[in-house]
Amino acid sequence: xxxxxxxxxxxxxxxxxxxxxxPESFAREFEQVNGFLAEEANGKEPSYGETCAAYMKQxxxxxxxxxxxxxxxxxxx
Length: 77
Known about the structure:
Layout: H1 5-21, H2 27-41, H3 48-67
């Protein structure tokens, strides 16, 4: 299933809900700034994007379950 703009918007809204409900779980994001800058300074592609992509996949899976029952519709995510 393609990640449509509608699904992306739902994903980002869900991300914000997670942040509002448990902001402490995002504390690590602020700590990762120095790691991101260090990786860039060393000419490496920062690994932060990979971490975010995994989280995006998790939330998208949750949304697929809620929006597209039965879940088999989004199983390929």
